[in-house]
Write a structure and sequence with these properties.
Oligomer: single chain
Helix content: 25-40%
Shape: globular
Largest sheet: 5 strands, antiparallel
Distance between the termini: 39 Å
Structural class: alpha+beta
Strand order of the largest sheet: 4-3-2-1-5
């Protein structure tokens, strides 16, 4: 397995996608669908809608294969903070009382900021109670790829790429 070790050592160390390039092609969409809907450790359906019911914390994935290339889909799985889908970055609000609210920004007006919590609950936080606001990260967990084999990632890429 010297050849494989040499191949892995030649991958760019500063590119998180380099160790997953084999996952761009050749997967099984049928098995990827099973990962999306059935693998509890990643719970894709909890945050995303694809072909049916699902969450709204993450961007809708119906038709993702028509809108994005496979490398974007792979990057979203293994390095979700590199490119965050517009409108799906996480906001953290700290109130003057020290209470912390985290969620995806849904909208805001003069009086309140409305977030969707990781559990899918709509939170309305009065603006005059906010002491600190930060954000800009993806609601998608950075470590989701740790719960998937490379084969499962390849199958999931195939499934999502076929959603046209």
């Amino acid at each position: 397995h010297v050849v494989l070790a040499r191949h892995d050592a030649a991958r760019p160390a500063d590119d998180p996608l380099s160790e997953y390039l084999e996952c761009l092609q050749g997967g099984s969409a049928k098995l990827g669908r099973l990962v999306f809907y059935g693998k509890q450790q990643v719970s894709c359906q909890r945050c995303h809608k694809a072909e049916g019911p699902g969450g709204e914390v993450g961007p809708p994935l119906a038709g993702i294969g028509s809108r994005q290339k496979r490398d974007y889909i792979l990057e979203s799985l293994v390095a979700p903070n590199r490119q965050i889908a517009k409108g799906f970055d996480t906001v953290v609000l700290v109130t003057k009382e020290g209470k912390v609210y985290t969620g995806v920004l849904k909208d805001e007006d003069e009086e309140s900021v409305r977030l969707t919590s990781p559990e899918g609950t709509l939170l309305a936080v009065p603006k005059d109670s906010v002491a600190e606001r930060s954000g800009g990260v993806s609601a998608m967990p950075e470590d989701v790829s740790k719960f998937l084999t490379r084969r499962e990632i390849r199958d999931l890429v195939e499934h999502l790429a076929e959603l046209k």
